[in-house]
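Example record

One chain of 294 residues, shown exactly as stored in the release files.
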Amino acid sequence: MTPREGSHTLGWQGLRCLPTPAGWTSLALVGVLVLLARWTGLDALRLLAVWLAAILLGSVWLACRTLLGLRLEWAAAHPVFAGQPAELPVVLANPAMRARTGLALGWDGQPAVVQLAVLAAASRRTCGLDHSTGTRGWQPLPPLRISSCQPFGLVRAWACLSGLPAVRVWPCPLESGLPLAAGRHPGGQGDEWQELLPWRPGQPASRVAWKIRAHGGPLVQSRFGDSAGPAVEWLDWDASPEPDLDRRAGLLAGRVVQLAQQPVSLRLRLAGRELAGGPARLLDALADAGREAA
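Predicted structure tokens for this chain:
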């Protein structure tokens, strides 16, 4: 499992640079000017070719300088249900005393997700990168890509960062059609005292409040209530008749979501174990359920 948090400072290692479409056009124009200068012998064409080549070389340095020293920090995305986008929080930190312009952040091989016109000197900016999710379980993220075409748009410099924390994907909740009371068992009867009631004939003598009676008080009885806690809702993986494992996980996840706001204690029987805890713990277990058998 990859670390849940990480950071990286951009240096020359791993930095790449290529001309943009405008840059390739300018490079072709330099070649044409050099050929024309040789054929015609005009010094003006040579100077124009040298001037344009200098702009291209300067663009390479300036585009790389925009990224050099930039620090990226990231943390794991929060768990999501299958089909929902996962958001990876990324912090761009600029330790330099100069602004960075024209930054683009996204996934490698895909269009940029976040465009930053200016990142001020000695500042930080938090961005959220969305990525689609598929089936339940742990889903790895593609490399993160940061790039810049500044200042002239002739050259694109970029760097890719891999090893990002995987996203926990819960099963997509499905409606089971069962009533909320299915699989529920009472929490039991307790002996917690609740209140005093007038004595009624036929009640057990053990319920009489004898101390009050001994001090000359009226004949009253104590009422005891349930102190054993809320009802228990059992979810059983092996008892489900659904043969498709992903759909079975979705049906049980739907029950967890339904019951999350109910005054019940959730339990899950899974692979010979009995799990208790909050909805997140049960959804984590359902995300991996049946993977060994598959």
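Notes: The longest helix spans residues 43-67.
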